[in-house]
Design brief:
- The protein has 185 residues and is an all-alpha fold.
- It has one domain.
- The chain contains three helices and no strands.
- Helix 2 packs antiparallel against helix 3 (129-184).
- 0% of the residues are buried.
């Protein structure tokens, strides 16, 4: 086997550092989006609280207060669901970018390992064909296992996303039904 040169080691370190900084940048972008979303929600909540307080202070009887309360429930549930969707979208978007970068790193590492194995095979002494075949088989099995894990992770993420959407839609519909029932009563 050929030993690694200093240039190869330095190039590998440089690539790893660049990847680390790239992933850190993506993580900070996700945090910035969450902070921006939370600031928007806080501003909107403050304005709505002021409007609700004014409306509550202008109520003249209990029936009017109940009507005001009922009118506030549905929008609150819908806003909470929308906020949850935004947070989920930010998290999944950031996660997808990190996954994409990780998959690229894994693919690059697999190529390098295969190149190393190929170099070792070319330089293998005569009579080691069985050992060479075993190494190639082990590397291929590891690559297949990695691909299977990546596929399973993607499928799990898709199922989780579908379930999240279903739960969110059900919660909003239940809130709307409850509000309509209160208005009818």
């Amino acid at each position: 086997m050929t030993p690694f040169t200093a240039e190869q080691v330095m190039a590998a370190h440089k690539a790893n550092i660049e990847t680390l900084f790239g992933l850190t940048h993506k993580a900070f972008e996700g945090v910035e989006k969450l902070v921006e979303l939370n600031l928007q929600v806080a501003k909107a909540s403050l304005a709505e609280a002021a409007e609700t307080t004014k409306a509550a202070l202008s109520v003249k009887d209990a029936q009017e207060l109940l009507a005001l309360q009922a009118s506030l429930l549905q929008p609150s549930a819908e806003k909470a669901a929308a906020y949850g969707r935004h947070v989920y979208d930010i998290a999944t978007g950031t996660g997808a970018e990190v996954t994409k970068a990780a998959e690229a790193q894994v693919a690059d590492a697999q190529k390098k390992v295969m190149a190393l194995v190929d170099t070792a095979v070319k330089n293998a002494p005569a009579g080691t064909e069985n050992a060479v075949a075993l190494v190639k088989s082990a590397v291929a099995a590891a690559n297949n296992a990695m691909e299977s894990v990546q596929k399973a992770a993607k499928q799990a993420a898709e199922v989780a996303e579908a379930n999240f959407q279903a739960v969110t839609n059900t919660a909003v519909k239940a809130s709307q039904t409850a509000t309509k029932a209160r208005r009818a009563a």
